[in-house]
Amino acid sequence: MKIERPRGTRDFLPEEMERRREIERKMRKIAESFGYREVMTPTFEHLELFTRKSGEGIVEEMYVFKDKSGRDLALRPELTAPVMRMFVNECSVMPRPLRFYYFANCFRYERPQKGRYREFWQFGVELIGSKSYLADAEVIILADKILKEVGVKFSLEIGHVGIMRHLLKPVGEERASKIMRLIDKEDREGLERYLEEIRVEDDLRDKIFSLVELKGDESVIDEAKEIVDYDFSYLEKLSSLLRDVDVDFTLNLGIARGLDYYTGVVFECYAEGLGAQKQVCGGGSYELSSLFGGPVTPSTGFAIGFDRVCEVCRVGEKKRDVVAVISFKGLESHAFRIASKLRDAGITAVVDVMERSLKKQMSFANEIGAKYAVIIAPEEVKEGNVAIKNLETQEQVVVAEGDMLKLLKFGE
Fold it and tell me: In degrees, to the nearest 5, what angle opens at C-alpha 378 toward C-alphas 374 and 381?
């Protein structure tokens, strides 16, 4: 009886892994070009790290377990909280701002569907220690560049949760948080019912719905000023800078984010070709340090849904440059020596380990898409030569072993 993989997980065969690693490599390179450095946190954490941030309700969406000492632990459902815990524990004396990036798997116990899995990967950054609009600008520019460089077609929407929070001050913090969560879920009917339940005045209700529907260019800021008495200069400066550096975006004041730790600018990127699960990146400014026992520290970050990016971009689809080292029986040690020489030169070399005939070795070389076969025959070995066959053109030449590398041409 076969054992199937757990629901909501996937196996990745070599071709897909090569493509995923190429996309990952590009993301890392871009983040590092901005001065971000990689960090890593444990795969599991104390459960309290996530419930303190998101409330007890999140437990239903997590993989939670007790260790042998009875401690409540959880597989990480995301990486912002672990990185901020690490910051509080390990980074108090490091110069600000801190620029961290991460790439790791996360786990959520939810219904699997297209673009949503129980084990998934996130690529993200955290810029810790700046409250300036310039920090938000840098993080948005970085997210925009990464998605463009890996070939995702997407739209970028930017909002500011501080505006709605300011409007909701009269209803109290707890009720405001629930309203924000309903807006985040785009549950208009639920929002209507809740506003009626807590007896929000018609004027405030109308302002809430008017603000949620504001979406467009910078002119929406002027419209928002008619709805709520708020200082929009931060959002205006950010928008101006992003336009100056050719970042294309839409202002969307209906982006709410249901989590209380978001403090200001928030943004989301939506990719073409993903259907309902189209969000590939989400981020914004937040404050979590004080929740985990550290000083109040403004931060900005984002997380990219790596699996969703891999579904819609074609980066990494390229022909493998492989050389098959083929030998007559009795010349296996020569084959391994030649293969080592190729590998030392940065070339992927495959040696037969099945003790197959020359004909079957050649057939296998074609099956794996090798570009060349280096053939080691008794006569060539005596003279210090090898035969090189181009499996695409079928041309074959005999050359001195020392000249072998000159004839292997890749990337053409």
Answer: 65
Token readout for 83 is 């990185």
Q: Mean pLDDT, to the nearest integer, of 92-102? A: 94
> How many angstroms separate the CA atoms of 387 and 342, rounded?
14
User: Sign of torsion, CA 11 12 14 17?
Assistant: negative
| Residue whose C-alpha is closest to residue 218's, from 197, 230, 232 | 232
User: What domains are defined for the chain?
Assistant: 14-312 (3.30.930.10), 322-407 (3.40.50.800)
**Contact of 265 with 160, CB cutoff 8 Å:** yes
pLDDT digits (tens, 9 = 90+) for 159-169: 999 999 999 99
- Sign for the CA dihedral angle at 109, 280, 277, 212 comes to positive
In this prediction, residue 258 carries a pLDDT of 63
Is 385:401 a contact under the CB 8 Å cutoff? yes
pLDDT digits (tens, 9 = 90+) for 222-243: 999 999 999 999 999 999 999 9
CA–CA separation, 186 and 202 (whole Å): 20
Residue pair 404/334 in contact (Cβ under 8 Å)? The answer is: no
pTM for the complete prediction? 0.91
Q: Encoding tokens for residue 118?
A: 């129980």
Cβ contact 388:404 at 8 Å:
yes
Task: Answer yes or no: are the C-beta atoms of 64 and 72 closer than 8 Å.
Answer: yes
Please report which helix (H) or strand (E) contains residue 10, including its range: none
Q: Could you tell me the two tokens for 79?
A: 């990486």
